[in-house]
Design goal:
Its main location: secreted. The protein has 420 residues and is an alpha/beta fold. It is built from 15 helices and twelve strands. Bound molecules: arginine (ARG) and zinc ion. Arginine binds next to helix 13 and helix 14.
């Protein structure tokens, strides 16, 4: 059975007409666990029956946007369940339009002393960028530092886009390694923006970096899901998955963070190709997952840290997510997480929280974080949920990019120091 929204989404896939969210509301619904106990999966019902788009689901609340036409019916459903919705936004399209305006008002990137050493490309952090600009920035970093930087094209997506990783190292054979990725989820634009900023922070001042930074091998992949990212820029701002076709359905896309080979068939993902958390037809069924896991498996020697950037929620979480158990050295991960939280508070004033994943985000299998720990034995594994806490959600206005990216850099710096 397909509802209107899914039928519409299908038509859109064919025509590539931009999806609009005029007068769609963003709701925050508390206490869904009570309804769950009565066997009513609130998020799933709102998604499937009322065409809702789940933004975030955790142990405390559910954030979901509902189209204008379905608002009344969805309200009645909540009333019947004795649930209340706090309206976070009365018009999701207005958020999206504002985000865009904020960006085009941004002036040209600052020039100055920093541009001498830094990559002087069209890159800046006053707005979000398309994939080509990000890839051009990566190429530019490589050509500026040919002796220590290597640029890999590790594979291609379903739509034929390249998957690119940079390696920065003065001694790849001996140094301990840290992996950083972004853009697993298409709509979380702040993630690639943050990961490119981390790259910039590293390279604009490489010679003067402390030993715990210069003495590491850095692997950096700003956009793990290029097809989804471009689709979220051109057609549907709230798209989450990749864009690979399914054999059993007209719905496209797999949730890459449910596609990794760890607790894959367990909780927290869907077998329905139309769902936003569709786990795929098998573990690592997706090109993105497959090439990243193969690339990392080959380089697991000395791999000490795996950092993956998402939004939103302002959290620094560590394994496990696929089961309600902590890793053996959880106290170490908690301590390093706390240090990052404190440093962020000092730097930008933002409040982050560090915790074990399943406790704050619920149980979900197939995540890249758990996989790197379980399959490769990486010690410092963190998923960073960047800003904000629900005011704008994924549609974070460009004026917040710099400070948020600085928060992301602070986590990377803190983990690098912990590796030692
Ligand atoms: N928001 C992220 C997601 O849903 C959180 C990832 C946490 N880790 C995990 N393995 N579920 O993918
Ligand atoms: Zn995400």
């Amino acid at each position: 059975i397909m509802n209107n929204t899914q039928a519409m989404a299908m038509a859109l896939d064919v025509n590539e007409i931009p999806q609009r969210y005029d007068e769609a509301q963003l709701w925050r619904i508390y206490n869904i666990s009570e309804a769950m106990q009565r066997q009513v999966p609130v998020g799933q019902v709102l998604e499937q029956k009322f065409g809702g788009n789940i933004w975030k689901e955790n142990s405390k609340f559910l954030d979901i946007s509902i189209g204008k036409e379905q608002l009344k019916a969805a309200r009645s459903f909540l009333d019947a369940q004795r649930l209340d919705a706090q309206v976070l936004s009365e018009n999701v399209q207005a958020l999206i339009d504002e985000e865009h305006l904020d960006g085009i008002n941004a002036t040209a990137p600052e020039q100055g002393q920093r541009s001498k050493k830094a990559a002087r490309s069209s890159m800046h952090w006053k707005d979000y960028h398309d994939l080509e600009t990000i890839y051009a920035f990566m190429r530019e970093i490589r050509s500026k530092f040919p002796n220590i930087v290597r640029l890999y094209t590790i594979g291609q997506t379903a739509e034929g886009r390249d998957l690119k990783v940079l390696r920065i190292s003065e001694n790849p054979r001996e140094y301990k390694k840290i992996w950083i990725d972004g853009g697993i989820h298409a709509r979380e634009w702040i993630s690639p923006a943050t990961v490119t900023f981390i790259l910039y922070q590293l390279m604009s001042n490489w010679e003067n970096q402390p030993a715990h930074i210069r003495g590491l091998t850095w692997y950096i992949m700003p956009v793990m899901n290029p097809d989804g990212y471009e689709y979220s820029r051109t057609t549907n701002r709230l798209w989450r998955k990749n864009r690979s076709p399914s054999r059993r359905s007209n719905c496209l896309g797999v949730d890459l963070n449910r596609n990794f080979d760890i607790g894959w068939a367990g909780y927290g993902s869907s077998t329905n190709p139309c769902s936003d958390t569709y786990r795929g037809s098998s573990p690592a069924s997706e090109a993105e997952t497959k090439v990243v896991t193969e690339f990392l498996a080959k380089r697991k020697y000395n791999l000490e840290a795996y950092l993956t950037y998402h939004s939103y929620g302002q959290m620094i979480v560590y394994p496990w997510a696929y089961k309600a158990v902590k890793v053996k050295d959880a106290s170490v991960l908690q301590r390093v997480g706390n240090t990052a939280v404190q440093r962020i508070a000092q730097k930008t004033g933002s409040t982050y929280q560090s915790a074990v994943t399943h406790e704050v985000l619920g149980i979900a299998g197939g995540g890249s974080d758990d996989w790197s720990r379980a399959a490769l034995g990486v010690k410092y594994v963190y998923t960073v949920e960047l800003r904000d806490r629900g005011t704008y959600g994924f549609v974070l206005p460009p004026k917040f990019i710099k400070d948020t990216a600085l928060e992301g850099w602070t986590v990377a710096e803190t983990v690098a120091q912990a590796i030692g």
